[in-house]
Every structure is written in structure tokens, then in C-alpha cells.
Amino acid sequence: MPVHRLTPILLCLLHMWRTLTPVSSHPQHRRCQLIQQTACCNNGQLTSVPEGLPENIEELQLNYNLFETLQNASLLSYPSLTALSLACNNLSKIELNTFQDSKLLKSLNLANNSLYNSYEETSLALRKLSGLIALDLSENKLTDEMAALLLQNLTSLEYLNLSGNLLLRVDEASFRDLHQLKELDLQRNLIFEIDNAFDSSPKLQRLNLAFNYLPCLTDFHMIQLEVLNVSHNFIEWFISRQDLNDTFQLETLDLSDNKLLFFPFLPSQSNLRYLYLSHNAIKFYEHLADNDMFPNSTKTVEFYNFNKEINNVTAQLWDENLHGDISSLETLDLIGNSVEYFPKGFIQKMPTLSRLQMHTNCLRTLNLTSEQFSRSLYELDVSNNELSQISADKATLTTLGNLTYFNLSLNGLKWVPMGLFSSLQSIRSVDLSYNNIDICLSEEAEISMHTNSTCMNWKNVMSLRQLYLKGCNLKIIPNTAFAGLSLTHLELSDNPGVTIHQSIQSLSTTLQHLGLGNTHIQDIDFSHFQSLKSLNISKNFLLHLPHSLQNLNLKVLDLRDNRLSTIPSGQANALAPKLQTIFLTGNQFNCCQTEWFRTFEATNTIHMVEQSAITCKDLFLRTHRVENPQSFLCFDDGESIFWYILLFVPVFLFFTGVSIIVLLTFKPTLLQKSIKKKCLKPTSY
Ligand SMILES: *[C@@H]1O[C@H](CO)[C@@H](O)[C@H](O)[C@H]1NC(C)=O
Ligand SMILES: *[C@@H]1O[C@H](CO)[C@@H](O)[C@H](O)[C@H]1NC(C)=O
Ligand SMILES: *[C@@H]1O[C@H](CO)[C@@H](O)[C@H](O)[C@H]1NC(C)=O
Ligand SMILES: *[C@@H]1O[C@H](CO)[C@@H](O)[C@H](O)[C@H]1NC(C)=O
Ligand SMILES: *[C@@H]1O[C@H](CO)[C@@H](O)[C@H](O)[C@H]1NC(C)=O
Ligand SMILES: *[C@@H]1O[C@H](CO)[C@@H](O)[C@H](O)[C@H]1NC(C)=O
Ligand SMILES: *[C@@H]1O[C@H](CO)[C@@H](O)[C@H](O)[C@H]1NC(C)=O
Ligand SMILES: *[C@@H]1O[C@H](CO)[C@@H](O)[C@H](O)[C@H]1NC(C)=O
Ligand SMILES: *[C@@H]1O[C@H](CO)[C@@H](O)[C@H](O)[C@H]1NC(C)=O
Ligand SMILES: *[C@@H]1O[C@H](CO)[C@@H](O)[C@H](O)[C@H]1NC(C)=O
Ligand SMILES: *[C@@H]1O[C@H](CO)[C@@H](O)[C@H](O)[C@H]1NC(C)=O
Ligand SMILES: *[C@@H]1O[C@H](CO)[C@@H](O)[C@H](O)[C@H]1NC(C)=O
């Protein structure tokens, strides 16, 4: 599907190099570059269409100039023009006869101008463009009436961009003549009402209404629409017309960042594949349907249509059929809602579901057996819920053969099914961070094969590459914990005091990222980790950088919040040529041993993150920025200071002694004088 944006600008940049070589013998305007049939005259301070370009040019780009008016005769010399772009000028007016002879013009980009000024004359000019297919009127401060007038008679228009204007409501008059319209962008207006606005555009396939003020969409019946984006509105209800027998063509529906309380009432037959519902307040209410506690509670809600003799919409609130047709769904994004459970059979209705994103909801249990997830499930994210247990029987787990990303972090998980990970044949990434879990000791692993387990076990899970165990309160990692794995990412940070022993050594050939921040590890031998690219050993009270690091090919090294006083030159020189990013803040470096800083600074390929916040202490324990060596005084190197002090101290002691003796000798007279002065002062009454 062609999308008409400001791509011409890009095109011009891409071809800029050509201007270095004289490609064309045509007389060129000073500020234009010619590329085949395209004239690029962007950023040229132009106020009128340049003359003297080849007569047969087909595309003319005049973006980022100083046009205020496009004049009557200005395009007369270029009758072959099919695309004209005048974005980001200060264009107020297009004169009546400007397009008199532009019969071939198909694409007109007028984005980011001031067309609100003389829209009446401009609209008369546009009317001559009977063959126009794409029109960009975004960012022009247009109101409802202005837009309606400008669009009159544009019967062949297929792509229209009205984003970033001042439209408040659209109705049947707004797009009346746009019978061929396929794509309409209305984002970032102030639209709060839609009244049959799209009925005259039966071919509309893509509609973007994001960032408006719509309070609800009831009676949705645009059967031909493929993509509907109404994210970032104030929508409380989305209700499709239920009495239509046709299959809706809808494939993508974006309702994220609204105020939905209910799962949207989708068309009863559709091809919906991508449904985005993140950041609403969606819950399921099936448990209220046959509630004995509130026998007379409302079960339906009715939407009155005051305007016309159109049917009122009645919705049975607790009727599960109102979820509509979700049988083609591949992606369901419910991030940041209030879902406590899935209604019975809900997951089962999506036999091709591939991604389910439930991050930040209120799920309490997840029974994979009863939900019956699809065999195509690829990503399951149930992080940041209230799960204390996941249940599944062995047969169920083997059906999840496509599950690749499984995110269980930020729950209160205590129980997982036996052999959870070993049954998932494609599992690649498991995130168990911030749960209270343990890793099975080998004997326990045997037991957990037979019952549900309180400890996790992933021995010999061949496909697993990424394992995140941050903040799991781990105490001991058994030596065999990672046996038989080929992990590339292992995250063990935020497990203070964990005993790692030899467990990670079995990963030494494959591991690329290792997170050991805030684990209180001291000296680990990294010398065998030849594939390691990224290492986090922050927050570990380290006094020295482990020696084994310097032979690795590290690209990223996080050393924040340790107790390093220096990095010996040998290590700095060895690390510098390989490192790309290093984190060093939160250490108390010795100001007089900061050679390493100059080494890293002189290496262009290293990025020292927050470089200006790296600090050191001088002899008098004052803090300085390492990057300003002139702010602290240092002698050649740390050791020679010692000798200066040794020399200085006896001399200082000698003079102090002499001063004290002198002082004591003269003290009585001093004392008397001061007493006299004070007491003889005349006092006032
Ligand atoms: C419409 O214009 C806006 C701003 O000029 C732009 O961000 C958006 O991508 C355009 N829409 C389409 C569909 O090209
Ligand atoms: C442009 O042409 C129209 C029609 O011929 C005429 O009415 C109008 O005055 C012209 N505008 C200018 C600025 O010449
Ligand atoms: C709109 O055009 C003005 C120049 O007329 C420019 O400064 C501004 O950045 C443009 N805005 C966008 C969103 O391109
Ligand atoms: C745009 O043109 C109007 C007159 O039509 C003028 O008042 C305004 O200052 C211009 N704005 C810029 C940014 O040049
Ligand atoms: C524009 O459309 C109106 C009806 O919508 C019609 O009366 C008028 O003749 C059309 N004008 C041109 C120039 O096609
Ligand atoms: C909907 O529009 C918003 C704003 O332009 C955009 O960020 C989002 O990606 C769009 N949604 C889809 C599914 O394309
Ligand atoms: C839909 O089909 C049912 C029965 O198949 C029929 O009674 C009903 O009138 C149809 N509705 C429409 C709008 O065609
Ligand atoms: C429910 O409605 C019935 C009949 O309308 C009435 O008899 C009953 O008292 C109502 N129950 C409650 C709890 O209001
Ligand atoms: C819709 O409901 C209102 C209020 O009950 C009623 O006045 C109106 O006649 C109904 N319209 C239709 C078409 O049923
Ligand atoms: C999970 O669902 C299955 C099938 O419905 C059921 O047999 C099993 O008892 C459930 N497990 C739990 C822990 O609820
Ligand atoms: C597994 O998931 C991926 C990604 O969504 C998909 O491309 C692939 O077709 C799925 N495989 C099966 C067997 O469903
Ligand atoms: C797992 O075991 C615990 C304690 O033995 C029990 O409370 C829990 O219900 C069991 N879960 C399953 C799914 O069997």
C-alpha cells in the first residue's frame, strides 16, 4: 500500500551525491538539483517557483522555502508535472488559476503551511485538479468548514492527510465527494464526534483517528475498513453493529490508551489479526452474570441516538458473545489493564494466537491446561501480575511447541508445573525475575519430576538462550544448575549474597551477557568466558577489577557503585581497544591515580557513560570530577606523595613547636592586656 508522507525530502537527500557530478546538460536553477525527472529545490529561501527548469519535469519539490502565495502562472512552464510538494513553507494562498494547466497532477503535498488564511480561493484552485490522487493538508490549522470546502469536488482522491488540524466534528458533509478514498489520516485533531462521515467513501481501508477526543464508538459498521486506529482518545465503549451478516475486513484495530472498561464488542464476523488494547481499564465481568447477590442488577446498556431515526444500540453487558469474532487474532495486546481472569473458553476462541501481552494486569492464576492456548503461541508475557502459581499438565506443555518468549517476571510465583521448561521445545527466553523462586538441587529435581515444584529446574533445555533470574532472592546456585544449557544471556543481578560457586563455568563457551550486579560477588575467574561481550558487576563492593577481565573481548562493562580506587594501567590499556561502553560512576577513585581515565578518554571508540559524574577524592578527601584534572592537585603519582609528606611533616612539627613555645612565653602579658581592655571600657547606662 503506497503511503504518501514527506518521503520526497528523503529521496532528495539520497540523491544529493549526484550533484557532485554534472549529470545533466539542462540549464539548472541555482537552488535546484535535477535527478532524472525530479527537481529538488528544498531549503532554498525561494518565494516563487523557479524558472528555467526543464519543461518535462514530472516532480517538483519546494519544501522548506518561503512561499506565501502560489501564483496563477507559476506552473505554466511545467505541464508534465505529476507531483508537487510545498511542505513546510508559510503558504497562505493558492491563486485561482494556478492549476489551470496541471492536468496530470496526481500528488500534492501542502503539509505544514498556513492554508487557513485564504482557504476559499485555495479551494477554488484545488477544484481544477480533477485527477488528484494524494493530498496532504496536515498541519494547516484548518477547521471543519475549511476542510470541507477544500475537499469539494476532489472525486478521485485516494489518500488524504488532515492530521494536526483543528477539526472538531466530522459528518456526512465533510468528505462527501471523496468516493475513491482509501486512506484517511485524521490524527491529532480535536474530533469529539463522528456522524456518518465515511458513508460516502465505501472504499476506505485505513483510517487513523489517534489523538482526538472521541468518547465512544458505537454502531461501528465500516465493513470494508482494514485498519482502524483510535488510540489515545477517551473511548469508553467500542460497539460494532451486531445485526450485519457480512464479514468485516478489519485486520488491525488499535484502541490503546483509551478508557475502555469492557473488552470491545467486536464485529461478529471479521478477519481481525492485530488487536491493541493496552492502557485501558478492561476487565471481564462474567462472574457477575448469574450472581445471586445482585439479582436485579442491570444487564444491558442502551445507547440512544438522538440525531436520526437510527436504531438505538443495546448491549448485553455480560454476554460473552459480544467479544465478537476473535478467531483470526494473532496478536492481543492487553498491557496495563485490570484483567483478573480470562472468561471460560476465551483463549480457546483464538486458535492462531501468537502473541499475548498481559504485562501489568491482575491475573491471579494461570491454568494453561484449562485455557487451551493455541499451538502457534510464540510469546506469552504475564509479567507484573499477581500470579502465585502456574499450572499445566505435561500433555498441555508439549502442545506449546512454538512458545519462544515466556515472561513471568514480577509475580509472586511459588509453584510451577513439573518440567515446565523442559517440555517447551522452542523455548528461547525465560524471564523469572522478581519472583521468590529457588533453583532445584539435583535431588530435588528428581522429586519435582513427579509433583509440582517450588523450585525451578531447566536442566538440558537445549533451546534456551536467555534466562533472567534478577531479584529472586537466590541463596545458592547448585553447581549443576546450568548443566546442558547453551545460554547466551544470564541475568543474576539483585540476588545479594548469592553463592554462585562453579555453576556458571559450564556456560563459559556460550555466554555473551552476564549480569552479576548487586550479588556481593568478590573474585570470580572470568578467564574462560571467551564469548562474553557484556558484563555487569555493579554494586559489589569491589576493591579491584578482576584480573581475568583483561583477556576478554568485552564491549560493555558495568562497574558502577563499587569501591574501586583505580584501574591499573595494564588493565586499562588491555580493555580500552575492545570496549565500547563502560559505566564507572559511584566509585571513589583516587584523584592521584587516574591515568586510566586519560587512557579511556583518548580512545575514541569508548563511551564512558555519565563521564562528568565520575568522581575521585584527593588527599584531603575532597571530591572532584575526574574529567577536570586541573581542579585537584597531584604530584607525579601516588607513591611520591608519600615522600613529600615524610619531608613535610618534621618541618611542620618543628615550626609548630617553636610557635607554641613563643606563644606560651608571651601569653601572660597578652592575657592581661585583653582583660584590661575589656574591663576598662566605659559602659553606658
Ligand atoms: C500525515 O501527516 C503527518 C504530519 O505531517 C505525518 O506525521 C503522517 O505520517 C502523515 N500520515 C500518513 C498516512 O502519511
Ligand atoms: C489569477 O487569475 C484569476 C482568473 O484569471 C484572476 O481573477 C486573478 O486576479 C489572478 N490573480 C492574480 C494575482 O493575478
Ligand atoms: C513546519 O514548518 C516550519 C517552517 O515553516 C518549520 O519550522 C517546522 O519545523 C515545521 N514543522 C514540522 C512538524 O515539520
Ligand atoms: C507567515 O505569513 C504571514 C502572512 O501571511 C505572516 O504574518 C507570518 O509572520 C508568516 N510567518 C512566518 C513564520 O514567516
Ligand atoms: C463541484 O461539485 C458540485 C456538487 O458537489 C457541482 O455542482 C459543481 O459543478 C462541481 N464543480 C466543478 C468545478 O466540478
Ligand atoms: C496508531 O497511531 C499512533 C499515533 O500515530 C501510532 O503511534 C500507532 O503505532 C498506531 N497504531 C498502529 C497499530 O499502527
Ligand atoms: C442476517 O441473517 C439472518 C438469518 O441468516 C437474517 O434473518 C437477517 O435478516 C440478516 N440480516 C441482514 C442485515 O441481512
Ligand atoms: C428484584 O425484583 C423482583 C421483581 O421485580 C422483586 O420482587 C425483588 O424484591 C427484587 N429484588 C431485590 C433484591 O431488589
Ligand atoms: C431510541 O430510544 C429513544 C429513548 O427511549 C426512543 O425515544 C427512540 O424512539 C428510540 N429509537 C428507535 C429507532 O428505536
Ligand atoms: C487446571 O485445569 C485442568 C483442566 O480444566 C484441571 O483438571 C486442573 O485441576 C486445573 N488445575 C488447577 C490447579 O486448577
Ligand atoms: C510460531 O510463531 C512464529 C512467530 O509468530 C510464526 O511465524 C510461526 O508460524 C509459528 N509456528 C507455528 C508452527 O505455529
Ligand atoms: C502444588 O503443591 C502445593 C503444596 O504442596 C499445593 O498447595 C498446590 O495446590 C499444588 N499445585 C498444583 C498445581 O498441584
Automatic annotation (TrEMBL):
Record keyword Membrane present: yes
Signal peptide: 1-25
Record keywords, A-Z: Leucine-rich repeat, Membrane, Repeat, Signal, Transmembrane, Transmembrane helix
Organism from which the protein derives: Astatotilapia calliptera (Eastern happy)
Matching InterPro entries: Leu-rich_rpt, Leu-rich_rpt_typical-subtyp, LRR_5, LRR_dom_sf, LRR_TM_domain-containing
Record-given protein name: Negative regulator of reactive oxygen species
GO cellular component: plasma membrane
Transmembrane segments: 641-666
Top-rank taxon: Eukaryota
